[in-house]
């Protein structure tokens, strides 16, 4: 999904479908009057009856098991004759009724640059093709779409600024006020290497010698090294602290790269309140007592992104103490949380000990 090879593959497949199946296997008496296509979207002018059209669609969907055609009919309108000088074309972006506004989610593992470029390109298309009368409405739609996917206003604003800079440069080049960027010259020699953090500088040095270097993230140098490493269980992960009061069902969910040390810090916060452990200390001041002596670990990992994601998921499904906040974005966690937890190696036994009602 999103691969640069997808459009040419779709183009080749549909071209083969049209020449080898549509032209030869559909009878001429039910074919469309006009058939035009852009990648995988087809535009048809059909002048036969409704009954014949349904028969045409049925035959069309039996030609290839991997292709299923759906149709959207043009809306009937009223033809009005206007003098040519009175007609003004105001371009705007029009989306299908099935458009859901789903793009890369903020919690996706895609690089930040890819996420920002998607939002930037949406703004850039609006600045290229929208008339000023519709531009404000289109910007509002982009903000709503990506805000619902968990992106902050600041992140979207940054992408918008980049789009404006890009559009300004396009207009300056078109007006002859600025020279377009020269196309990159392809070197005669090319090397592909597994990616590693220590080889950043080699790309520039080889480039100055006329050698192109590309990195692969599927074949790390580290993965090629065969050595024995003593396995030591990680101390990091997501931990749970329950209240010692029998009638209190609230728990504290936290994350740390060193859970035993963090529990000691929570214990110290009872005597010396700290803003870093405000939630736990404040709960104690309300007549409760957080049990920091028993270590309940719901998830173990040394990966910081994985830890904060699981922490956010558990906070979304558990009854936590007042002020217990997640390190990640809480957006859509009520939907995504159960899905992520179902596929993660969660220690549900400790979760049940900390809060039995969480699993009901």
Structural topology:
Elements: H1 6-25, E1 34-38, E2 41-45, H2 50-60, H3 112-129, H4 132-147, H5 153-174, E3 189-194, H6 200-208, E4 211-216, H7 221-224, E5 237-242, E6 251-256, H8 259-271, H9 278-285, E7 296-300, H10 304-317, H11 333-343, H12 348-354
Parallel strand pairs: 3-4
Antiparallel strand pairs: 1-2, 5-6, 5-7
Helix pairs in contact: 3-4, 3-5, 8-9, 10-11
Domain GIY-YIG: 234-325
Domain Reverse transcriptase: 1-89
Protein name: GIY-YIG domain-containing protein
Describe this structure in words.
The chain is of the alpha+beta class. It has four domains: 55 residues, no CATH class; 63 residues, no CATH class; 34 residues, no CATH class; 123 residues, 3-Layer(aba) Sandwich (GIY-YIG endonuclease). The protein contains twelve helices and seven strands. The chain has a three-stranded antiparallel β-sheet. It has a two-stranded antiparallel sheet with strand order 1-2. A two-stranded parallel sheet has the order 3-4. A hairpin with an 8-residue loop joins strand 5 and strand 6. Helix 8 packs across helix 9 and helix 10 packs across helix 11. The longest helix has 22 residues. The radius of gyration is 29 Å and the shape is extended. The two termini are 36 Å apart. 17% of the residues are buried. The mean pLDDT is 79.
Q: What string, H for helix and E for strand, traces the elements in order? A: HEEHHHHEHEHEEHHEHHH
CATH fold label of the largest domain: GIY-YIG endonuclease
User: How many discrete domains?
Assistant: 4
The DSSP helix count reads 12
Major beta-sheet overview: 3 strands, antiparallel
Mean pLDDT: 79
* Arrangement of strands in the largest sheet: 6-5-7
Low-confidence segments, ≥5 residues, pLDDT <50? none
Number of strands: 7
Query: Termini separation (Å)?
Result: 36 Å
CATH class of the largest domain: Alpha Beta
**What portion of residues is helical?**
40-55%
Kindly estimate the percentage of residues that lie in beta strands according to DSSP: 5-15%
- Rough shape? extended
| Gyration radius, rounded | 29 Å
Category from helices, strands and their pairing: alpha+beta
Which CATH architecture of the largest domain is right? 3-Layer(aba) Sandwich
